[in-house]
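Hey team,

Filing this mostly as a record. A colleague (T.K.) asked me to run one chain through the structure pipeline before their review meeting, and I want the input and output archived in the tracker in case anyone asks later how it was produced. No errors, nothing strange. Just documentation.

Input sequence:
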Amino acid sequence: MPSLDIIGGANGSGKTTVSILSRYKMTEEEMKKLHSKIDVGVKAAIAAAIERHRRLGQSISIMQNGKIVTITADKIAVIQNQYHSESKV
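Output structure:
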């Protein structure tokens, strides 16, 4: 039976890579590893973007409790985790 797979995500999140690789028969374990790598990459990109805004004095807008909230740069916490490296920003 034919199937339809819908792949969604932000720019740079790996949609094209997944769509190309999904044409090939991947094991569930290979697919989990790929998803994990994409997840780490997306989180690193988000952390880098937030840190860049903080350093440049630019505000960010987020969704909080169903509402859009703008956070000024001086209120953005410094991101120091496994997904962010100062050398990559």
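Quick notes for T.K.: The chain is about 40% helix and 10% strand. Residues 83-89 have pLDDT under 50 and may be disordered.
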